[in-house]
Amino acid sequence: MEKLNAIISNHISNWNMVWFGLIFWGSVFNAIAINYELTLNPMLWYACGLLLGSLAKIRGTWLWKV
Amino acid sequence: MWPASWQSRENKRNLALEGVGQVAEEFSFDKEKEIARSFSKRFQWEMMLIGVGQATIWLCLWPLVIYGYISLFVGSLIAIVCACFAYLPSHEAQHGNFSRGNPKRRWIDSFVSHYTLITLMFPHDLMRCTHMKHHAYTNNPEKDPDYDTASSKSIWGVIVATQAGITKYQSIAETYKDDKTFMKSFHKGLNVALVYRAILLILVVMFPLEALLLWWLPSKVGVIYLSAFFSWYPHYQMDTGRYKDTKFWSHWMPRYLNHSMQLHFVHHLHPGIGHYDEPKAIEALKPFLIARKVPGAENIPDRVTHNPLIRL
Predict the structure, then answer these.
(1) Rounded CA gap, B267 and B248, in Å?
(2) Average confidence (pLDDT) over B143-150
(3) Rounded to an integer, what distance in angstroms lies between the CA atom of residue B268 and that of residue B134?
(4) Which of A66, B103, B106, B298 has a Cα at 20 to 30 A from A11?
(5) Inter-chain CB proximity A12 and B165 less than 8 Å
């Protein structure tokens, strides 16, 4: 159980930005696209979210470095 | 030979007075403490009302917006106001100012703090343990968890510091890794933070724009507001030491809009004074604060105007 907790905890601390980008920003981009009747594949918006999250992970921050 | 508990009490007292210079007997620490204690008794019902009220309003916004009773834009504005009011009731609870040392009332501290912090997505235990360290090590670059915002050079620096997110907490955990009590609260808080994050990610799949504008954005604005007025303004360019780490300052904004953080220094001196009793306490303590050379104390008005203290 402890090992599982450690694995989950490590995964979250390493990949939380990527998951947040994919799910949160992907969903938000997709909803905005629907709102403005942009008829592109929804996968594109989730890919944008994933890209944003991946960039944040590489840079270590969402916006500016402190 | 003194009993161990007495020695411990004496050590705490010595620590509290560390760096405090000599003053006339009439302004002694004991007399100051006696006055402060007289303002540290009242039940902080206003804070409980604000905390429970704002969180309830915020929760009601969800069905109101989803079922179209109010627009998302209006809902978002109300949620931002709620977020700005969310921290202070928790702050009172973190200092036990609802229970006032009564174990039977401790649940009030816990309930108010957990409930009010929903709007900000902050875990109570994490806030409490880091805030206690902030009080113990105010303005210490290595040990004060709020030093990143307090040392910012401008409001922009504060905004940038607030988005550091988990990185900040990783470094705090590293600093206090040997403090078992701290780490226990810290991990408990981290688990609650994970639950908040999971709920947000579930909500965003079902209600994407509502999750963005009713929760994520208001919590960000709330955190920036809090960091600027709670961490930055009162501690900016201040030293370390009991009477030197927080200042009395003035601001163009009416006192109610910045949660009276001009008076934050008295909270650092006597955290048991209830927020809405601080103006009266400052009026009573002014000669002590001047004698102790608290930064800006000479500018404290004899009567703190727009005193929000309401007697029941």
Answers:
(1) 11
(2) 89
(3) 10
(4) A66
(5) no
DSSP state of A7: H
Domain count for chain A, please give it.
1
Residue A26 domain-assigned?
yes
Asked, for residue A27, whether it belongs to a domain, the answer is yes
Q: Do A60 and B167 touch (CB under 8 A)?
A: yes
Which residue among A13, A28, A60 sits closest to B212, beta carbon to beta carbon? A28
pTM for the model stands at 0.86
What residue segments make up the domains of chain B, in order of their start? 25-42+233-312, 43-232
Dihedral angle, C-alpha B162, B211, B130, B111, nearest 10 °: 150
Of the partner residues A13, A24, A32, the one whose CB lies closest to the CB of residue B166: A13
In a domain, A17, yes or no: yes
List of chain B residues whose C-beta atoms are within 8 Å of the C-beta of residue A61: 163-165, 167
| C-alpha–C-alpha distance, residues B132 and B142, integer Å | 15
Which of A30, A34, A57, A66 to mutate to test binding with chain B, by most B CBs within 10 Å of its CB?
A66
Give this complex's ipTM. 0.90
Looking at residue A42, its pLDDT comes to 86
Residue among A12, A23, A61 whose CB faces B163 most closely:
A61
